[in-house]
Amino acid sequence: MIIKRHNKWCAYCKGTNDLYKIDITPFGVQKYICRECNTKKCKRFRQTDNGRKSIYKAVYKSINKYPQKQHARYILNYAVAIGKIKKPKICSFCKEHKKVNGHHTDYSKPLEVRWLCTSCHRLADKNLI
Predict the structure, then answer these.
(1) Tens of pLDDT along 40-98?
(2) Exposure winner among 2, 13, 37, 107, fewest CB in 10 A?
(3) C-alpha to C-alpha distances, 3 to 8, 30, 41, 92, nearest whole angstrom
(4) CA–CA distance from 76 to each of 30, 33, 58, 101 (Å)?
(5) Other beta carbons within 10 Å of 104
(6) How far apart, in whole angstroms, are the C-alpha atoms of residue 8 and residue 29?
């Protein structure tokens, strides 16, 4: 939740843009953090042992929960690696030159993908495009 109030400030950099409520102290004081400080904080956490363990746990939880999805990703990545499928550099929806990812509409057909940039991929995952 983004809060846009100018009487609050980030607990780390004291900025006032795009604030998130992160904590309420035992004394009832609310702490806020801005988007940039939150990104830095998350990156530092991912570099620690606990952060790496947390990511590892989340990845394997997803693999076990959605094995068909993982199998389709594996087959597609292998096909790209051996040159059977060529990965384009243009998003198939917005036609911009960006880094693209394969979007599966049907996991039973792992080589049939739409190559979408990150923003278009988010929309496709929400069935908006």
Answers:
(1) 989 999 999 999 999 999 999 999 999 999 999 999 999 999 999 999 999 999 999 99
(2) 2
(3) 9, 12, 19, 35
(4) 46, 39, 22, 11
(5) 18
(6) 11
What type of residue sits at position 39?
T
Buried b (16+ CB within 10 A) or exposed e, 17-36: eebeeeeeeeeeeeebbbee
Beta bridge partners of 97: 90
Contact 101, 115 (CB under 8 A): yes
Q: List, for residues 31-56, the tens digit of each pLDDT value.
A: 788 888 888 989 999 999 999 999 99
pTM of the predicted protein model: 0.62
Report the alpha-carbon distance of residue 102 to residue 110 in Å, rounded.
10
Location of structure tokens 């278009």:
120
